[in-house]
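Reminder: ligand-aware prediction takes two inputs, not one.
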Amino acid sequence: MKPVLDNGLVVTGHGRHYVVETEDGARRICHPRGKKSQAVVGDRVRWLAPAAGQGEEGTIEQILPRSNLFYRQDEIRTKAFAANIDQVLVLLGAEPVFSEWQLAKALVAAEAAGIPALIGLNKQDLPEPFEQAWQRLAAYRQLWPAVNPNADQQGAGPEGAAMQPLYPVFRLQLGATHAGADGAALFERLRGKSTLVLGPSGVGKSTLINRLVPNAAVQTAEISRALNSGKHTTTTTTWYWVDRAAGTAVLDSPGFQEFGLNHIEWQSLPQWMPDIGRHATGCRFYNCTHIHEPGCVVRDAVVEDGGEVASAVYGGALAMPRIAASRYALYEDLFAELRGR
Ligand SMILES: Nc1nc2c(ncn2[C@@H]2O[C@H](COP(=O)(O)OP(=O)(O)OP(=O)(O)O)[C@@H](O)[C@H]2O)c(=O)[nH]1
Ligand SMILES: [Zn+2]
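Here is what comes back for the chain with guanosine-5'-triphosphate:
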């Protein structure tokens, strides 16, 4: 008799052990078939229960095709965070002071993977550092003529064109019951979706997960015990259901420190930085790198220090904001890093 394969969802993994959730919500430890362990959290898999007398642990026989894969890559290794996710939430805080370099890299990785990104700024109760951080995010909050007018519409721009921010940015106070000025809007945005939460240490990721998933700590402890790994939580991504029936899930993830982008081609970088990319259409040279060429429309669009990003470069329906000098500087640095390797 041919063995029957079951459908499952990889909810976490550690080394060659994975926790697979079955269709009825039960969880099983599974090993990958063969030597390679390529499954990633979020993978939909076909798995096989052990034959009678063969213990408790199943095998992952097949990984179903992915809609996306979010990963980073440095010189030494590739680290997959998750597969099949609907969006990435980069969580930052008024404290500690965030690195715009790390933020920009995470956003480039999300864009390159075709995954929409949101930004949360936590600790709104700390007015001064919060205001500074909020100002540092001005270029990300900047409204642009909408590419997809149905999403995120925030009023009309010149000539009535729909506008949307470069990235949706949410003001949060996750430590408080009200969750901050945009707390409710963020929770609304998470509903029915799987969201990978990224961010540096100390911004409030655990606070967010524990708030949304009250038994997260218990789940984590159970998984650690089952996988027999004390340091489990710091090394891998975990999928938590907020509302399984509604399809709402949050995934926590470790390590935001060095976000390697070795997998990104330098030629495609403007495509993954939407403010740069949307200006990169009329340069004199078709293969303009936007670094040094004459007749470069991108460099013409960069605001001088102290200038207004919002002041449009082109008139009429094409009105687009300028490019913030800090964003162009990030482009130059990322370009140098990708090209130099
Ligand atoms: N002032 C303030 N502090 C907060 C808020 N939300 C969380 N914190 C505090 O920020 C600190 C870090 O929060 P965590 O949730 O542990 O942060 P994390 O991102 O999980 O950090 P790691 O576990 O190091 O990755 C804790 O002391 C929280 O109490 C907030 O809205 N305001
Ligand atoms: Zn150019």
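The domain at 266-340 is CATH 1.10.40 (Ribonucleotide Reductase Protein R1; domain 1). The chain has three domains: 6-63, 69-252, 266-340. We will return to this case in the review session.
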